Amino acid sequence: MKREVVLRIEDLHVVFKVFKGELKVVDGITLTAHSGERLGLVGESGCGKTTCGRCIVRLVQPTSGRIRFASKRLSEVIDIAKPEMEKWHQAKREIQMIFQTPGAALNPVFSIGTQFITALHYAQSDNMKNREIRRRAIEALREVQLPDPKRILKSYPFQLSGGMNQRVSIAMALAVEPELLIADEPTTALDVTVQNQILELFYALVKGKETSLIYITHNLGVIREIADTVYVMYAGTIVEHGNPREIFSNPVHPYTQGLMEAMPKLAGGGFSKGIRGTIPSYFEPPSGCRFHPRCSKQMHTCAEERPTFIKVAEDHEVACFLFQEHDDRPNPAS
Amino acid sequence: MRIRDVIGAFPGLDKDTFKEGYYKFTRNRFSVIGLSLVLIVIFLAIFAPFIVPYPQHASSYVNFKQTNKPPSWQHFCGTDLVGRDVFSRIIFAYRYSLTMAVMVLALVVPPGVLLGLIAGYYHGTWVDYTIMRITDVFLAVPPLILALAVTSVLGPSMTNAMMAVSLMWWPWYVRLVYGVVSSLRNETYVHSAQVIGASRFHILWREVLPNCVSSVFTKMSLDVGWVIMLGAALSFVGLGAQAPTPDLGTMISDGATFLPDLWWMSMFPSIGVLIVVLGFNLLGDGLRDLFALEEL
Amino acid sequence: MTDRILQVNALKKHFKTNQGTVRAIDGVDFTIDFGETLGLVGESGSGKTTVGYTVIGLYVPTAGDILFGGQDIALPVIRRRKAIKKEIQIVFQDPGSSLNPRRRIEEIIGLPLRVHGIGDHRNNKQQVVELLQKVELSPDYASKAPTTLSGGEQARVTIARALATDPKFIILDEPTAALDVSIQAKIITMLVELQKELSLAYLFVSHDLSLMRNVAGRVAIMYLGKICEVAHAAEFFQNPLHPYSQMLLSSIPVVSDEDEALKPKKTRVVGEIPSPVNLPSGCSFHPRCPKAMEICSQVDPEMAEVEESHFVRCHL
């Protein structure tokens, strides 16, 4: 059941220049999203996942690499990293983003209605009358299960709770019926019960519309609930990817293993002391595999070359020298 | 202990901090221009008697053979009504302007900041209301009118002008610090100090104040420009420095009647004012950038 | 002499706002023994942080008393006796904002030492270094500024500061909420070790039930200003009785099938937390409760001991 590829990120690099030097934040990410797929991008803070997400919507300009977006509706393939501006303007509509803080994406001085209508107005290629746009907005709000949409349209963001604001953001993003939705930690700022409801919402909405979803988070549990595919990121690189259930029950990359062990379980039994070492500096990131200084199983090759992806199980690939031809000598520095 | 406290406002003061400070400051070209202008003015003011071509022109001096001469190589900015070199007088006038600015700020900033600290910390209580209402009263009086009133009562002189300016300047500092402190007092680190049991004095002086320092210094720099202008305005109407003391305002005023023929007599002092005020304004912007907290 | 270090009775804290009275805490009772960890769990608006702030004295209770070692300390922190302030400390939620960015670490940690006269000015440096070592930070952190530290390091500094006065009781207000999982593991492990080493009692305020499972001795669930269930951790997670507890547990995203099996089934999350200004009548949970009965909208239930040391406030 091979679905079509909607988005393909190839060898993405993002380098930020600051006073102290260059921050090599994203260092060679390759990622594929299929139509109708729910893809989870998971990693701890500072690993570059948000930067990746932002590159897809061109809020951040990548330093090198390609982001190929195959739009069904437009029957075009464009490279978001270096697009032809004309085509990008058309394609923008097909990619929407939902941000982390529910209130932040909404302008506090305008009512929801005003913002919604403005957003739809710009997103429509055909000139719709305000009335029609309003009707669409109400429909969208109903779909995210907000009671009394007319009242919501009249309200201001501060009058609504975080959960409701986030639903509004989701409604706005989905109202234009994009092909690709990027959610950047949309439930991190919300309560657990609200998060649960929003996740169910995502599930239902995305399923119905053949929209692809890229869900960025640091919460592995959320990924397990909502994603078909997961990409585990560490320090700007992907270390493992595949089916979440498979990966979480059988993590093979030392980082993923460390992460799983560090998580407190509902079943009790304590948790580990965490992963030794700290996140590396992006000014001078470790050579070869970026995780090697913290890895208890590091070997000589790990510091020399970057590992490539090897399939270890059905729908489960890992980038680690433990699983491929390597120099078996343990690294003297470990 | 006291100087340590101020320096304590910049934790980890060492070579790195200076380098970073340098970077933060110099990112904006204009701040550097401002700093250069200010340094030049200060230098000129301090060393005026030694640099200026005609130092004696700064005091009683007349030379009726050289009156009303336009700019030339001997007199860069021309001469005035009684034959004095305008350029030299401008440089000397800087001395007085800067002195005045420093004195006014020295008089105004400490009490203003102190009152603002107290009012802000006790936000919402009678202490707050008392202090701020008194401040409001002083703010309500138009500055120039107040200055005029003071100087006409006490007699026109530089000192009196300074006092007048001080009197209407301090409320602004109270206001500024009050605003900053009112929000700072809800910061978690202030709560933390309270929980630990630190005295109120400690909290105000060593937790809150260092975080106000940036706003205050920035404002001070901008204020130098304002004070100088206000002083010039007072002198312009005759209430500031008296003849023969060179003063930018008086010089502009004296020369104003002869515009546009003997344009240099007003023009150059005006440019003098412009340079020093602009310099401090740009410097103020740079200071604000400098004090911004680490953001990488 | 009891084992109790803290006893809170009928605590209430109401805030008057333009929209009405916010009943942040509306009748809360609990006790904590020496060396014990009580996990206070709730979502936003439950009042859990307010409880912590009231116990430490940043808020003054509207009603009720707080007995610390037998003495009533329901006073604003400024008025409390120094000896009391020494014994009870707090670690705030966001380590970044609880450290004054304009001061050095050694001054920040040195403050409690100076205030309570522990060691003199000279010895200060030595003790600061010792405290830094306790939280596994090297001595050269002393002269750094908080803004140059990572989240995990900042959290350690706030813990070192809390330990400076050698307290018996520390309120931990979601100390790791802002931290990543791997760093959280380190910090929590450290907190647990310190607890054993120094016989500390913890009031651990959190929203993370999985974490509480592994850290708390007893767990108390709060909803809209009241505690709805208190039990020993193991008992609670095997047998949650209150419908809200069940709802909470069922909505946690977990990573393993094993954990998934432990979650209560047949519970769906319904509705949202109502505004604390406009509380529902009777039991404040009844509009969302799948097992609501008629009495639930009329009468607010009392706390009852349903099983050994397992208290629930529910009409069921």
In short:
With 334 residues, chain A is an alpha/beta fold.
List key phrases describing it:
heterotrimer, A: 334 residues, alpha/beta, Rossmann fold, 2 domains, four-stranded antiparallel β-sheet, 10 helices, B: 296 residues, globular
Structure characterization notes:
The complex is a heterotrimer of chains A (334), B (296) and C (316). Chain A has 10 helices and 12 strands. Chain A has 334 residues and is of the alpha/beta class. Chain A has 2 domains: 5-234, Rossmann fold, CATH 3.40.50; 256-323, no CATH class. In chain A, helix 3 packs across helix 4 and helix 4 crosses helix 6. The radius of gyration of chain A is 21 Å and the shape is globular. The mean pLDDT of chain A is 85. Chain B is mainly α and 296 residues long. Chain B is 72% helix and 0% strand. Chain B contains 12 helices and no strands. Chain B has helices at residues 2-7, 15-26, 29-46, 48-51, 86-121, 126-140, 143-154, 158-184, 188-196, 200-236, 248-256, 264-291. Chain B is globular, with a radius of gyration of 22 Å. The two termini of chain B are 31 Å apart. Chain C has one domain: 3-Layer(aba) Sandwich (Rossmann fold), CATH 3.40.50. Chain C has an 8-stranded mixed beta sheet, sandwiched between helices. In chain C, strands 2-1-4-5 form a 4-stranded antiparallel beta sheet, covered by helices on one side. In chain C, strand 11 and strand 12 (310-313) form a beta hairpin. In chain C, helix 3 (105-115) crosses helix 4 (124-134), helix 3 packs parallel to helix 5 and helix 5 (151-163) packs parallel to helix 6. The radius of gyration of chain C is 20 Å and the shape is globular. The chains are: A alpha/beta (334), B mainly alpha (296), C alpha/beta (316). Chains in contact: A-B, A-C, B-C.
